[in-house]
Amino acid sequence: xxxxxxxxxxxxxxxxxxxxxxxxxxxxxxxxxxxxxxxxxxxxxxxxxxxxxxxxxxxxxxxxxxxxxxxxxxxxxxxxxxxxxxxxxxxxxxxxxxxxxxxxxxxxxxxxxxxxxxxxxxxxxxxxxxxxxxxxxxxxxxxxxxxxxxxxxxxxxxxxxxxxxxxxxxxxxxxxxxxxx
Length: 181
Fold this sequence. Notes:
By secondary structure, this protein is of the alpha+beta class. Helices cover 35% and strands 24% of the residues.
């Protein structure tokens, strides 16, 4: 099977996984969390960066620490945009982020990521938690076609990664906004 067909099947499998989220586990019942009304601030944010098949001489991409800061900033901005930023509850995020490179190790493919969320009250008591298995991003139809074209022509690089970070951050906050009664 040629590489394009294998990549397509791997992509379909990841798209299937992206739709397979976990249910929220509520430690306190009934939950005090209210969908779209409770406010959150990021507490602990842990990011683990994997870079399989990277050209080790390429230093143009964000480091693990820079990537973590970028995610925290984007998630905080999304919390504010969605009207759920505040110090009522604390969210701890543990994220694995695999920066995937095309053949040659210099040009990006779509990243793979997984994360777990814990929501705590001000006394650091766990109220709710959930996790998302290994997933990849999915843009809107036309944007997705443009991204796939960039990937297939080896034109996606460090300048495109903030777009991926933004979309993942929007997804995380959209899920947080749905937590509660």
